[in-house]
């Protein structure tokens, strides 16, 4: 055989030699130096489960972006770190509810915006709040502002928030959460009315120094901030979706603070590496098994009640959450108005009662589908439910769906049983809002319809007497449970770990309030 | 060679068109209303309607495809729904991270794999050959995600030699952050390339030009390194080209396990959120990467070995 080699500008030999040299250089050990481990470098490194992509509070999609917004913007009031839901003054030097629909406020005189946009004034407050409710803004967060009518500006730094009707969540959601962030009117208008991936003017104790998508958001101390000085010079927020990866990063010394998986709680109770600590907080999530009341197979209330009594909640929680969470009594978490002391159907299964109810229903050879997310927690829970329902003769087929398909199930008329989990902001109205008749087939997947429930939901939002409000929400959850469409499971939990050099500042549901993080 | 290159890139272009079209149709076949998923539960009907119109989701699928290619020809991949940034900016911001990971994996695994394979072929049926065979097969059999997790626990958590997460800043820091993920996804390629080179070399060692070289009394090391390895290495070039596709898929989990930015993570996140513009932008670029790399591998192969250019 004759091999003919053709000539080329770059020699083949050179090519192969170069490739080998590159390979050798790649194999050289490069570690052991210049590593950015969490150490005494004045940088606080925290994990977020997602990437904060939008700096406009009107278009914030939730907690991930709020962690950044609450550090670079100010609100009239902020959540107070601790175990009880409470608020404290932030940009407001005074705020007072003068009657059920009017809230007077005065701003501090020492807060200014970056990029030459001047001091924060009442006009900025008016602009920020009214743009949330303006149709032109198309803000998905508009419902948080409830019946806001407008803001009257009564002085350079004074004004009055005017509501169309009383609105209790104003103090628990509207002002201290996403919609409460006060942006600069002049800067936002100069940007065409919409803030994108980069802030146009900041006013908080931190400034967003840089953002590397999917990699890191860096906050630096605002040199012009005149309020209480934040303790950390720099905060790096690392988007890490996977909790196991975050745990490894923490143990490698590269994170100071992260939420951990419920499956790791037992291990961290025995000790957190590097002198860290485990903190266990309740969560606002609520998880339940729902039954589609419109489905022909689930028309029989006795059958639904049999299913309620046949599900052993403690066993489900042990299998799916490793016993790290408590059973819930409804959709409203402990610490919020309307959290029930106990549910009508006890958490423990009562198979005799369930079998009797099934016999009363007259249904035989019952076969149902159970839709669930493709997460281990939910598939484990679904399998336990499948096993326990089998004990009374109900056959369950589990449909495991990826998140996109699962969250589009609202209008699926074939939906039968569904294992569901919603998040909420810290006000009870946020939970009941999804179960009204108007939401049937949208986010009310059970198609639960109750005029009394709808009325209670509407009235409770306007009720400023906390005790009366609590009674309304308790009754609303009674109605849900009486329908037989719900078997409440848990509010889950928020276990977090932090390094020995950090004094975390957390909301009562364990979420970080980064601007208040201290040094241990 | 030029005609071969034109033919090869023409085929690559056709493959790219078919693959992207199939992906376009597949992503639209996935259940779930993309607008509802993208905007979340509290989006107003007006906003949902506007986004539906913006993304042309109210149009027949064939028209959506025509619009997509029309925009693509103008270099417009659309706007990200969440951040309002151009998709091209987002994709090209993530691409270098994935390329770094893939190329560093290829380079170290090829360098080591070729070395092991050549050494084993030069000492056939010896103890060394058997040991390298066992090691190579072990490498091939080691699941990359297990290697990733074990290397994290050993080298990042226990020994603290290398960082566990992120991509780093600056050249050396970025290299430092590449070591563990590149090790994890390149290890099985070491074994694969070693076996390939060994088999190829043993075949070449029996050919006439090698026998002639030996008959001339040329040093055995030179015979192996120059006369045998240079030809035996040709299949590796092709395999590396095809391997780009496998490494791209490996990069997805590496980017998740090591919390690295990159194209793979971008694709996963955007599919989950039904962010169609980002999905199509990422798929287009990653498919192009794969198609171009296989075409380049063929060209390099043809350049190194004229027999590979085929009949004219």
Topology:
The complex is a heterodimer of chains A (520) and B (312).
Chain A: H1 12-27, E1 43-48, H2 63-72, E2 77-79, E3 87-89, E4 92-99, E5 102-107, H3 122-133, E6 148-153, E7 158-163, H4 185-190, E8 206-212, E9 216-221, E10 234-239, H5 243-251, E11 257-259, H6 265-269, E12 277-282, E13 286-291, H7 301-310, H8 313-321, H9 351-361, E14 367-373, H10 376-390, E15 395-401, H11 403-406, E16 417-422, H12 428-432, H13 451-462, H14 466-482, E17 486-490, E18 493-498, E19 502-503, E20 518-519
Helix pairs in contact in A: 7-9, 8-10, 13-14
Chain B: H1 2-29, H2 34-39, H3 45-54, H4 61-73, H5 87-122, H6 127-141, H7 144-158, H8 171-205, H9 208-215, H10 220-232, H11 234-257, H12 263-272, H13 276-304
Helix pairs in contact in B: 1-13, 5-6, 5-8, 5-11, 5-13, 6-8, 7-8, 7-11, 8-10, 8-11, 9-10, 11-12, 11-13, 12-13
Written account of the structure:
The complex is a heterodimer of chains A (520) and B (312). Helix content of chain A is 27%, strand content 21%. The model of chain A is unreliable at 1-10 and 19-36 (pLDDT under 50). The relative contact order of chain A is 0.14. Chain A is an alpha+beta fold. Chain B is mainly α and 312 residues long. Chain B has a domain at 95-309: MetI-like (MetI-like fold, Orthogonal Bundle), CATH 1.10.3720. Chain B is built from 13 helices and no strands. Chain B has helices at residues 2-29, 34-39, 45-54, 61-73, 87-122, 127-141, 144-158, 171-205, 208-215, 220-232, 234-257, 263-272, 276-304. The chains are: A alpha+beta (520), B mainly alpha (312). Chains A and B meet through helix 1, helix 5 and helix 11 of A and helix 2, helix 3, helix 5, helix 7 and helix 8 of B.
